[in-house]
Specification:
Layout: H1 3-12, H2 36-39, H3 41-55, H4 61-75, H5 78-90, H6 95-100, H7 112-125, H8 136-145, H9 148-170
Length: about 180
């Protein structure tokens, strides 16, 4: 019975609504299986190496994490949204910028270079949404702020986070299970 139905029933019976207490051991969410990357350690290592290669080129680490956060929001990956928001917060990112990532076009908190990276992340993440997913306009704006190696690093980071998102969403991984 839903909480709403339970509260209506209790009101009709003349009792105050008191939500049932959850036992501490009760699991509200459960993954379908272990994370794929933990089942295949070679895949885990390869994805970590791929991420490390993108971090060596000179794109600011905060920009890469913002891109990972935005792609994860689009893909509905609770594990990655939770992890990257927490990582950014630990690195000194402001609440305004963290909350603003989902609406980055409409808030004043991001530099032009970060906006270009976020636009590229959205386009590469949403390949099937439009006939020309990475338009010349998006590409040219990104190229105004990033040289070729940095663009390659951004695309590697975007592709990598999309792999993680697909692993986690397909297997319904639970954010809190990853040791926040």
């Amino acid at each position: 019975m839903s909480i709403f139905a339970l509260s209506i029933r209790r009101i009709c019976e003349g009792r105050k609504f008191r939500p049932e207490k959850k036992r501490k051991t009760e699991v509200l969410m459960q993954a379908r299986m272990k994370n794929i990357a933990l089942i295949f350690p070679d895949a885990l290592q390869a994805l970590h190496r791929l991420k490390a290669s993108a971090e060596k080129v000179g794109v600011p680490s905060r920009t890469l994490e913002l891109v990972e956060l935005r792609a994860s929001q689009i893909n509905g990956c609770s594990v990655c949204v939770d992890m990257h928001a927490r990582d950014l917060k630990k690195k000194g990112e402001t609440d305004e910028r963290l909350f603003g990532v989902a609406a980055w076009r409409d808030v004043p908190y991001f530099s032009d270079a970060e906006r270009a990276a976020l636009a590229l992340a959205e386009a590469v993440t949403r390949l099937s949404d439009r006939p020309d997913p990475v338009s010349d306009e998006i590409w040219q704006e990104a190229a105004r702020h990033y040289d070729e190696p940095a663009l390659a690093a951004l695309i590697i980071a975007i592709a990598n986070i999309n792999v993680w998102n697909r692993f986690n969403v397909a297997t319904k991984q639970v954010a809190s299970a990853w040791g926040n």
